[in-house]
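hey so u asked for the seq, here:
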Amino acid sequence: MEQVIIIHDELLERWGGEQGTGHRGDTDGAEAAVQAVKNSYYESIEELGAAYAVYIIQGHVFLDGNKRTGAAAMFTFLQRNQRSVRLSAEDIFDLMVELQERAEAGERTDRLVYWLAGSLP
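ran it, structure tokens below
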């Protein structure tokens, strides 16, 4: 959880945005997102990495920067597990926007994880 919060804060410092947590009003959202990934039963490293992005974005963990933080958490996890994913900044942006749109449309979490993991080259 602490790492996700540090990632979020560094991204906001670099790119701007409003500080603060999402609808829960404290760091419970970040903790819930990380715990959800830890408790998941996804089979591949890519699925686990994608789960970080999904739970952060779907849970609207922070007031601002959820897509950036979700993407950064996913790529950090993948990198630490020796997975290399090469996407352009534009491709990452498009994936995170589509992820948010699918989440807002009510797509199930597991389907979002499988879709995102399958979208990683």
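The helical segments are 2-15, 28-38, 45-58, 66-80, 89-104, 109-118. The domain at 2-118 is CATH 1.20.120.1870 (Four Helix Bundle (Hemerythrin (Met), subunit A)).
lmk if thats what u needed
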